[in-house]
Amino acid sequence: MVFFLEMSTSRAVKIHRGCGLRRALSPSLVVILGATGTGKSKLAIEIGKRLRGEIISADSMQVYQGLDIITNKVTAKERAQCRHHMISFVDPLVSNYTVVDFRNKAVSLISFPTALPPPLHDMHRRNKLPIIVGGTNYYIESLLWRVLLDAGVNTDRKLELEKLGGAELHRRLMEVDPEMASMLHPNDKRKIARSLQIHHETGIPHSSWLEEQRGQEGGDGLGGPLRYQDPCIFWLHADMDALDERLDARVDEMLSVGLIEELRDFHVRFNQKKVQNDSQNYQHGIFQSIGFKEFHDYLTYETALLSISLLGVEALKTATRRYARKQNKWVRNRFLKRPGDGVPAVYGLDVTDVARWEETVLTPALQILDSLCKGEKPSTEPIRLQRAELRNKRSRHTCDLCDKVIIGDLEWAALHLKLWSKLYFRLAFFLLLFFFLWTLQLQTIRYLDTWPLHQEEVKKNPSPSPPDIDLSLFCCRITISKEPISPCFIN
Questions:
Q1: For 427-444, what is each residue's pLDDT tens digit?
Q2: Which of 76, 67, 84 is nearest to 132 (CA)?
Q3: What is the SS3 assignment for 136?
Q4: DSSP β-bridge partners for residue 396
Q5: What are the pLDDT digits (tens) for 222-234?
Q6: How far apart are alpha carbons 314 and 477 in whole angstroms?
Q7: Is the pLDDT of residue 161 over 90?
Q8: End-to-end CA distance of the chain, in Å?
Q9: What is the gyration radius of the CA atoms in the chain, in angstroms?
Q10: 199 vs 179: CA distance, rounded Å
Q11: Given a cut of 50, is residue 160 above it in pLDDT?
Q12: What is the pLDDT of residues 182-200, one digit of tens each?
């Protein structure tokens, strides 16, 4: 038995009634990846309305109460269209909410291991399709793949370690886990602190945990086997120039609806005292949100200056564009290039042209889901990478020429391709400069050799032309002077 989805496009997509239900969990859940500003929430809501879905927000900033504008939370009107979870439930003063906390709560919402009373049934037991959407990609990773290290982290210990310098942290890790130290850059303090903490709490090197994880069926160096079989993953991507314009426009829209007022109010209530004590921290909790650091000077000045505000706006736009690129890079490296055979398919949807959104995004997404529900192969091919692109050992390389530490074979090759290109052009420039100076020196000697003859000509003819310096090798002729040269010039 089938029913038709109501769509504003001219055609409808047939979806099996069993889609997303407990007896036909294919796909077991839907994941929507993409950079900020690509319309992930819009697609999630449309899918949720049509397929009896519920949305789990995978955004590390949206879990906190407050700052609805800067964190770009869905509006009350949007939330009324489809049920949302994991939004605005953590106190903003909490700074130790971790990815493990998110994963545990999200897993319980999707499929709790034991049956709960009917009102508290998980989504699978209530025949609802879980839709995971958000820009914090490592939250999504923790939900999709199992890992051996399920225990939470000691946040205080981690913060204590992060206060140390990168070189000192790396030295400590080299003593207890040299294999892991060789795979981490000395400046990557968070990852080094995490590896040190794992060794401190378990007594086992982090690299040993990862090795055991790789040995599991379906496991790899990034995670264990899939937690939920047959997930459907969409990646919303766009031309970066078009996305940059969209992001700048979104920042302007946020400003028009009260972004600065929201930041100022939040600063007065939660951050002002910390700033006065010089204990503000924009690396943890909700204060990591893009906007606080960019508007720090504006918020802390007693008199708000327009020039500082404009600088903050431009810094906010720059940080947002940079974050979008970072998100896309994460998707490519951790989803598209993920090693192993048990990697789920990722379907790309181009969101560059907003005017054709239903045609290029919504309809293809629904058709893919329809095919998966019926156990058929979708007509849209998933994104595939060449096998050569997938191999990137996390080897440590040190460049003697530029005094840099590079982690990763592909990064090493890319850097040195660029480095040798720069060296080639520098060498060519210096050779050209040397040749020019050498030629100039020869012509100068020739000029000085002819000077006595020129002086005799001056006596005979008061206004002769001085000899030219011929640089014909450079396809030009340089004349030093048309006037008699004073002897002091030679001296």
A1: 777 888 888 888 877 777
A2: 84
A3: coil
A4: 407
A5: 777 889 989 999 9
A6: 49
A7: no
A8: 104
A9: 32
A10: 13
A11: yes
A12: 888 888 888 888 888 888 8
Token pair of 169 as six digits: 């942290």
Nearest-angstrom CA–CA distance, 176 and 169: 11
Residues 6+ apart with CB under 8 A from 199: 176, 177, 205, 206
Q: What's CA 421's distance to the chain center, in Å?
A: 27
Place of tokens 């989803």: 335
Q: Which helix (H) or strand (E) holds 3?
A: strand 2-4
Cα–Cα distance between 463 and 454 in angstroms, integer?
11
Which of 342, 334, 344 minimizes the C-alpha distance to 217?
Answer: 342
Integer Cα distance of 30 and 22 in angstroms:
14
Across 202-216, 405-419, 461-475, the highest mean pLDDT is recorded for 202-216
Question: Taking a C-beta distance cutoff of 8 angstroms, is the pair 228, 29 a contact?
Answer: yes
Where is pLDDT greater, at 350 or 418? 350
Separation between Cα atoms, residue 55 and residue 73, nearest integer Å: 13
For 304, the token pair is 């708000």
Ordered by where they begin, the domains of the chain are 24-147+222-240+327-387 (3.40.50.300), 153-217 (1.10.20.140), 241-276+286-323 (1.10.287), 396-437 (no CATH)
Enter the tokens of residue 104: 């545990």
Mean per-residue pLDDT for 19-40?
Answer: 78
Residue 42 main-chain phi, psi, to 5 deg: -60, -45
